[in-house]
Amino acid sequence: MNILLIYPAFPDTFWSFSYALRFIGKKSAFPPLGLITVAALLPATWSLRLVDVNVDDLTDDDLAWADMAFLSAMAVQRKSAAVIIARCHGKGLRIVAGGPLFTAEPEAFGQVNHLVLDEAEHTLPAFIADLENGCPQRIYRANGYPDVHQTPIPLWHLIHMNRYASLNIQYSRGCPFNCDFCNITSLFGSRPRTKTPPQVLAELDAIYQTGWRGNIFFVDDNFIGNKGSLKKQLLPALIEWRRDKKGCVFFTESSINLADDPELMTLMADAGFDSVFIGIESPDEGSLSECRKEHNKNRDMLLDVKKIHRSGMQVMGGFIVGFDSDTPSIFQRQIDFIQQSGIVTAMVGMLQAPPGTRLFDRLVGERRVRTDFSGDNVDGRTNIIPAMGLDRLIDGYRAIMRQIYSPGKYYQRIRSILKDLKVPAVTVPADFQRFLAFFRACLRLGVLGKERFQYWYLLIWTLVRRPRLLPLAVTLSIYGYHYRRICELHIL
Length: 492
Hints:
alpha/beta, 6-stranded parallel β-sheet, globular
């Protein structure tokens, strides 16, 4: 049987890094880890072909070759997924779909023949067995959560690695916290399930043996959800693994309480982590209480960010405006916090209510859910009716983005983080594309860009003050170009 695995396209968002990727000759930030893991669960006798629409065209020849199409997608890929489904349906191709988008809204995709939902380790074997017996069902749901110790190594040979800026790997699923707006616990549970260190090392070996020496994203929703096993088992194993390795810098997602554990921060930095995304959400205690982000309360988050920077890891921050308790002052408070923290990559979004969350259920009950959930943080929409009024929220949101991604404020934050950041223990080796990226940046930002003064001042400042961090200064400058383009095209 010929199986065509298809990954829908992402729209332009902050996380797409589409304008930054051009500097390094890449087409997409990350490959479809979930889909190549699903591929490893399929029978070895089946023939597999993968098309990631973010890096390749889906051709009629691909569709003609296939007996069945497998799709996986997140909410932000909805539009592309709908187009692909319609195209496959038009060709008479049987469609199998799974992943967060379809799990959250199975009723929205009538043209899909088989919905294999929740986690594939539980539902996919049942579908395959029924298919081989000639009696496949339309919907497969799981009872409980699978043992990730049985999760196979992804089939990396199905993708073109040189088209991606980073690769990805998963250590755990689930999060011990239960924030009101987040659907992670409804998808993966509140008790983190972790792979064994030998599993993780085997996956890293598979990546390293391909010749990859670049960035690797641990896609865990909260990497430090199980601190005990992390500190005693995985991080020591990662430190030992890289003793005879070059490159392969890690980054991940974490909760702010990472700052409470100096030993954990040191171990992560020694293991090769150089950055971490943290959901800070709001400097307002009332808003944090409202969304049940209790672990962010009663702490000096500015100091916490500084602690993490001084450990050698850059903080990338997530921020939200539009909580019921937010007042008009929240917009300037967010700007002030972002500038004072030195968080360069500040992902600010309007509050949305994903299906399956407590927030969604509450707002449905209050008749305050207004449109379909897009999952897109830059489309200028929210699927809720905010307490402060939609027009005021949109105006305030635009004011934040206009300021924090203006060249003056953005480059000020780069200098701020470079002052605090400990030089990372591990760096990505320079290659030809990164060498070219420097000259492209000098032309695009230093000659043609409206930020030319700030760019050259930053480079000179870095060469004098923190010369070992010059590559990071250039990288963050390129990111800033991407963020400004997204703002100009989609927000302001």
